[in-house]
Amino acid sequence: MNLVADFIKGNLDVLVRRFAEAARELESTQGLKPSELISTIPEYLHAVAAICQHGATPERLETRTRLEEAHINLRLRVGATQEDSTEEYTLLGRLIPQLWEDAQPARKPDASDLQCLFQQIEEAMEHVVFLFSGDSLEDRQREKRFLRQMDALAPRSLEPGTDMRGPLKPLVELIARAMEAAGAELFLVDAGGRRLFPAAHTLHLVPPAGRWADTQGPSFLGRVARAEEPLVLAQARGLEDFEREGLEASAWSTLLGLRLWPHGALMGVLCVGFAEARPVPPQAKRFLETLVEYLSGILDRALLMGRLSEAHARMEASETRYRLASQAAADTVWDWNLLTQKVAWSGETRRLLGFAPEEIGPLAQWWVARIHPEDRERVEHGIHAAIQGTQARWQDEYRFLNRQGDVVRVLDTGVILRDAAGRGVRMVGAMQDVTSRWEAENGHEQQLREARTARVQADTELSQLHALLRQAPVALAILRGPAHVVALANDRVCQLWGRTSDQVLGRPVLEALPEVEGQGIRELLDGVLTTGAPYVGHELPVRLARAAGGALEEAYFNLIYQPLHETEVGLQGILVVANEVTEAVQARQRAEDLAGTLKASEERLRLALDAADMGSWDIELTTGRGTWDARFRAMLGLPAQGEVLLDEAMRFVLEEDRPLVEHAMEEAARPGGSGEYACEFRARLPRPGQAERWISGRGHVHFGPDGRPLRFVGTGLDVTERKLAEEAARQRTEFEQYLVGIVSHDLRNPLSAITLGTSSLLKREDLSERATKAVLRIQNSAERAVRMIRDLLDFTQARMGGGLPVQCQDLELGALVRQVVEEVRMTAPERDLQLSLPQAGLRGCWDPDRVTQLLINLLGNALKYSPEDTPVAVRLREVPGSILLEVHNGGAPIASNVLPRIFQPMQRGAPGMDAATRSVGLGLYIVRTIVHAHGGTIDVTSTREAGTTFTVRLPHADAKR
Fold first, then answer.
1. What is the SS3 assignment for 133?
2. Which residue, 220, 244, 547, 570, is the most exposed by fewest CB within 10 angstroms?
3. pTM to 2 decimals?
């Protein structure tokens, strides 16, 4: 007697009705008629009952198969998928056991009956898979065998830039063997995503060089790269050159190609070749899709591991550079959580501030309170304006009071990290001691102001002198350049020389006055211009022809020859003044005094710039002519010699940064503005392969009496090392986020599937004790992995997202603590958990989920690190203004070298712990983050005599958080 068969026959109407009701809820059955919904289910159940009762004869199996095909073909006609159809048979397999739960024990089928029923259901689902995909069980077993072989041949790591042909050739050969093809070739796309290059060929150890194909071109490989489905080329012999671009397929008659497309991006193309002309059946195409998808996963994983290895090497080098740069610059690094106002300090805090990092107050207010009172309002206003605005950086220079109360002048720079809404959530920066530099620059600024004043005074006096001499009864001329061309001459000169202005201006002296040749004038002028020293002559005799065609007359002049320097007055030449001795001597003395003042100022300025390792420039804005010292020329990449105009110098600024520099200069030169210029930019690469340089420029624009900008003077400082350190920190943060994304998303889905599967298995009554234990071990391991992922996600949010969010609500804390302790008792019944609660309830505003997570982590720690025969105590009590939650355990104390960093991330317990209980070391870090998010504190004490106690202090309900 078979109880399953009798049960099915006796309850057939109920089973069909319940199946119809449950199947109608499925999306694939919407709109079907009742007859279409039930289809052949009644006859199918009769056939299954007959097989279970009388055995699987060929006639009964044929009847069952026919009914299954009729039902599946109906589902195919209405657009159902393979999953939809298998879900219906799964539903049928659940309904029968659910129905006999209400039956008498004597009527319930035994294990052998159940095995027969479930075997029929499973074979029906196998039939669904075969009809939908065309694959038999043997086909799928063969597919699994080749996939296992691909796993065995898969390279562990492929670093970018290395030769991949050796590791990939066995995989390509295996795919050709699986497809029963004459050969295969793998092409990989380059970094630009445009060219396909051969990576492995079954016929060559190393594919011939020089072949490639355009992914956007008309060739077969290009069409495969753009196609979502496999492409077939029925006649590969005799192809046009454009069609066979990149291919080495002379021995292949039929080609089958498919692209590698992991994560929605082209990785490459696999091309399989057959020696004879043949059609390619759908099953072969689907098999190739499976193999290529698996190959894509293998390559993606290997390349990721290669990039990880390379990234680790870069990170180590970056960390070393960052540490050395930080030590060399004596920086103090700070990390400010803008949501909680907590600030973490590191670096050279003791040397700069006089405080160790752990002695500094945890809130930003500590930093504000130690800013010099005269700078405090300005700095605080500036940094909050930057945070509330849209800019990504903030920088200020101010005075800070160290531990001894002494003033330290610091340069503080911060980078603002914002969320998707643009709100500032975190700020990371560095504080650098610039006291020595400021003192040097302050002296330089004073000297620069003196030089500017002297130069402006010289310009003014020279202009006044020119105006005066144009009106006075003296002879005045300016001879420009080494050819001594007359660039300026007043009427008095023309009268003395007996020439018109047209005969004088624009001509060399000896051309305008040919009769003075041989009188020593040329030698005198050359000497003045060469030596740069003025010459004063009293009653010098000169023979001139004062009238056209007249005889030479001997005249005596008291003359001054004053050299003009281009750096001072904008031209190179000689100023010639002829007048009475008294006026001439006064003019010469004034010119000598101005020249001496300017020369001394320039010398002081040069020494100050050398001390500060800065370069300088001085630009005449009306002409664009600039004076650049040697250091700034080297810094910007300008030619070491020769005149360089402003427009020419701007071409050495990196093209992307050029608009920024031009805007800063326009703002500084805007009439009515402050004239101050400050900008950071990159210098264009002077030679291929040479790293670009960052330059920080500061300057000032000087305006004339009419408000027009005349001169632009400034200094430049090479800040490349600081910029590299900032970029390394940004890349490190992005890489951490990328890794956590892999952990959180790529691991969470398979773990969820494992957990769901083990839960389903544990509900089966036919599991043996050994199998049940194995499933429980799998379930426990999966749950531990889920907890580790949760800890990693919480850790990432706490470190990068501004702390853990809490959803506070009115809560009776004692009841919550009692509930958590009871749950832990159920998971560890062999341990003694002691609970002490106050008589009166403790109500307040806390997040129940986070407090539960906090207490479970502390209890798990206490149970893990204490002997099994010792109790673990949980105590909750009220103190003035706070609630104390204590978790105590006995056993060995926490090591003294571990205790100071017990709440830091990635800190595990004592070495030698069982690997099954080991975690990623984030539990206590997350506990502290949850406590801080509630406005509380956490402490730990650990001695051999008293044991270990973690004390959490939470603000009371009436305390302001």
1. helix
2. 547
3. 0.32
Look up residue 798 and give its two tokens: 């706490």
Residue 762, C-beta contacts closer than 8 angstroms, at least 6 positions apart: 772, 775, 776, 779
Q: What is the DSSP letter of 893?
A: P
Longest dimension (CA), the chain: 156
3-state secondary structure of 953: strand
Q: At what angle do helices 12-23 and 41-54 cross, to 10 degrees?
A: 130
What is the DSSP track for 542-578?
Answer: EEE--STTPPPEEEEEEEEEEEE-HHHHSS-EEEEEE
Q: Measure Cα distances from 867 to 386, 864, 907, 949 in Å.
A: 54, 8, 21, 15
**d(C-alpha 272, C-alpha 281), whole Å:** 14
What is the CATH code for 613-724? Answer: 3.30.450.20
**By the 8 A CB rule, do 269 and 187 touch?**
yes
Model pLDDT, residue 448: 55
Quote the CA–CA distance of 464 and 471 in Å, as a whole number. 11
Can you tell me which residue has the tokens 């609660």?
837
Output the DSSP codes for 348-395. SHHHHHS--GGGS-SBHHHHHHTB-HHHHHHHHHHHHHHHHSS-SEEE
How buried is residue 912: exposed, middle or buried, by Cβ count under 10 Å (0-12/13-18/19+)?
exposed
CATH class for the region spanning 443-604: alpha beta
Domains 141-309 and 613-724 share a fold: yes
The alpha carbon of 616 is separated from its chain's Cα centroid by a whole number of angstroms, namely 35
Secondary structure string (H, E, C) spanning 629-698: CHHHHHHHCCCCCCCEEHHHHHCCECCCCHHHHHHHHHHHCCCCCCCEEEEEEEECCCCCCCCCEEEEEE
Residue 59: CB atoms within 10 A of its CB come to: 9
CA angle 319, 323, 324 (to 5 degrees): 120
What is the number of other CB atoms lying within 10 angstroms of the CB of residue 271?
29
Q: Which two tokens stand for residue 368?
A: 């504000």
Domain 3-133 in CATH 1.10.357? The answer is: no
CA atoms within 13 A on the CB side of 812: 9
3-state class of 864 per DSSP?
A: helix
Cα(16)–Cα(38) distance, integer angstroms: 7
Distance, in Å, from the CA atom of 886 to the CA atom of 817, rounded to the nearest integer, reads 11
Per-domain boundaries in the chain: 3-133, 141-309, 331-433, 443-604, 613-724, 804-955
Buried b (16+ CB within 10 A) or exposed e, 447-476: bbeebbebbeebbeebeebeeebeeeebbb
Q: Which residues make Cβ contacts (< 8 Å) with residue 407, sequence separation at least 6?
A: 372, 399, 400, 401
Where on the phi/psi map is residue 384: left (φ > 0), alpha (ψ -120 to 50), or beta? alpha
804-955 carries CATH number 3.30.565.10: yes
Q: How far is CA 3 from the centre of its chain?
A: 66
Find how far residue 39's CA is from the centre of its chain: 58
Q: Which residue in this structure is represented by tokens 């069909």?
A: 16
Pick the CATH number of 331-433 from 3.30.450.20, 1.10.560.10, 1.10.240.10, 3.40.630.10: 3.30.450.20
E strands present in 119-209: 183-189, 195-201
Which is nearest to 248 in space by CA: 224, 282, 271, 265? 271
Residue 672 to residue 80: CA distance in whole angstroms: 76
Provide the CATH topology of domain 141-309: Beta-Lactamase (3.30.450)
d(CA 690, CA 639): 17
- Does residue 362 sit in helix, strand or coil? coil
| Rounded Cα distance, 888 and 876, in Å | 12
Of 656, 699, 701, 647, the C-alpha closest to 681 is 656
**257: enclosing H helix or E strand:** strand 254-260
What the block records as the tokens of 187 is 């092409």
- Supply φ then ψ for residue 63, to 5 degrees: -65, -45
Q: How far apart are CA 388 and CA 796, in angstroms?
A: 24
Residues of the chain with pLDDT under 50: 1, 324-330, 458, 462, 465-466, 468-469, 472, 580-591, 594-595, 597-598, 600-601, 608-609, 611-612, 911-918, 958-961
